[in-house]
Write the structure tokens for this entry.
Amino acid sequence: MALTPVEPGMVATIVTHLEMRERPRPAPVPAAPLRLAPWKTPDLTAYRTLFRRVGAPWLWFSRLVMADPELTAIIHDPAVEVYAVTDPRGTEVGLLELDFRSLPDCELGFFGLVPELNGKGLGRWLMAQAKSLAWRKGVERFWVHTCTLDSPAALGFYIKSGFLPYGREIETFADPRLAGVLPRDAAPHVPLLDQTATA
């Protein structure tokens, strides 16, 4: 059994792709004190702020380093639907992004709640919302990918939600904490290997 070294300053993760090829049977939406607020043309700063709040613990960084025109082209595309999850006070506490640009596929692009809401069963409510919004006329496949940097519960949650795994890849990328894109204490479950740090 061979091991593949990971270069200093890089992070490696196993990505699992999952799909749902049949519309789920209607089911009651779990109760939650949250609501979805559609963002038709999200402000880039507000979007990135929420993206960071939801994703920093899992090393989400792609949208933080993307050039403004590239990000605008995605999240302002009429075929991409962005929703902020808000609490009873109207505070943004989660993100849902559905990508219909490759019909008949719909990709669950981003899905998550701020860390303080994790583990409270609210993900089931958000997933019920996601499935209700994703499965519409012309959609034949709903898919998502997750990785080993995500919450340990994520893969099981997606499978329990009706997604079936169909592919696996290894991804490596420069650690965004070393470049200052995310704080050095983000994602403590992923050791920070910084050979330039002084004792």
The first helix runs from residue 44 to 55.
